[in-house]
Write the structure tokens for this entry.
Amino acid sequence: MSTTLEPLESLAPTLSVRQVLMLERVLAGEPEVVAGASQLDRAVRWVHVAEAADVGVMLSGGEMVLTTGVLLAGDDDKQAEYIRSLHRAEAAAVVLGLGRAFPAPPDVMRRAAERCGLPMVVLHRPFPFAELTEEVQARLVRRKFAAVSMSEAVRTALTGLITAGAPLQRMLDEIAHHSGCPVVVTNLAHRVLATGGERSAVEDVLRDWERIARQAGGSEGDGWIRAELGGRGERWGQIMLCGYRGDTATGRLLADRAAEALVLHRMLGGTSAHTWEEQSAQSLLTDLVSGVVPARQLLPRARAAGLPVNRRTFVPLVVRDGDPAELDRVLRLLGLPGIVAELADGATAVLLSLARDQDATVLTANFAARLSRTVVAAADPRTAWDDVPAGMREARHVADAVASGVLDLPPVVRLKDVHLRGLIRLLRDDPHVQSFAERELDGLLCGAGEDLLAVLRTYLATGRNKSRTAQLHHVSRPALYRRLEAIQGRLGVDLDDFEQAASVHIALLAHDAQQS
């Protein structure tokens, strides 16, 4: 759902001094800026025609004051005080029509305006001030109406997405569509939680995110518009319009509408800022594991997410049956920089980023020791970011290889620890391997053979230890012998023969890998 809007530049609820001076009727008066030229982007909230010497007390700020100065002529003190009073009232500018009172720009007023930073404009050709007042007021009214219409259009579009159950990414892309620039959502530490907009533009922003984050607490400028995210006295993040090309006031209005929608989206979706952090990490690590997105393109995202990437050693891990919240807590406890995200099939990916002088093996072992009832699969450390995706896939492969219950595992499992099981996992989708497994196990793959298959699996996994197998299946040794005889009869093999037992074992590993 999207709404076609007017050009962003036309929606500003105010005009700047510079824009007023470019109006056709003003140009006919031959305007000349004699002071405060650096302040011409000030917003003009209203135009006020006044000849009173004490006009400042009648203003509320943002007015462009038009005058002939008839009551100021011949009195330098009054002229200087007139400018100072406009400055105190925060007037946008003063426009002096040259004529009988002032045939040339008054030097006293010019110097006072320059000291105050108040734009002062003189008109060399007279024209009716009423015409200018009428035109500017009409333009301001139209712009305010257009800004309100834009605000409501954005609110309607975003509310429609929330009602439809749209994900956060869809919301941010819609906001980026209306703003015409990338949008970024961060937590209070300025770590990027989510982005929206054209991919190349977003990547440009993330590439320079460290500098942007350092300036995030400063004043808005150069199109960087932000709005706080939070509610009920709690502030948990902000949304930023990055490089907004329209008027700052309009951009702030748009950012406010976006912030309202995101807070509502979070509340109705039952999510939290922490959940958005998890989604951000999950997206990054999933892309790393899949290899669909080149590692070099993912580097700005990793850096913006708070992961140190310069001169680091990366340790890819995959934890079986691990709670992502617990893993994140352990990382913080040990002071290890890294990101955590849940993958499919009960696996959780962890990417550690260590200093080059830290011992990756020791720190990985310390991390694994803090976890209970989990399998930590690790790839060899990588010192180049481009090698991280291959490392993540290696760790995932190791975790998959031990998912079927390999016995006597070390605290941290590596590729060398999975041996034949790891090879079978790599070849499990090969049709020749599938045919081999079905042929070798044909007598046990249906009916009552399923119970015997479980006994066979335990018997081979224990190194053909009959006592241990009987104990694990809670049967007597004579009962186990009868089951082993039934297995051998169905398969037509002698399990005491090493080569035949090895063939059956390989087929069983392939069968289990295919089933998982």
Observations:
- The first strand starts at residue 15 and ends at 16.
- The mean pLDDT is 83.
- The radius of gyration is 36 Å.
- Residues 80 and 108 are 6 Å apart (CA to CA).
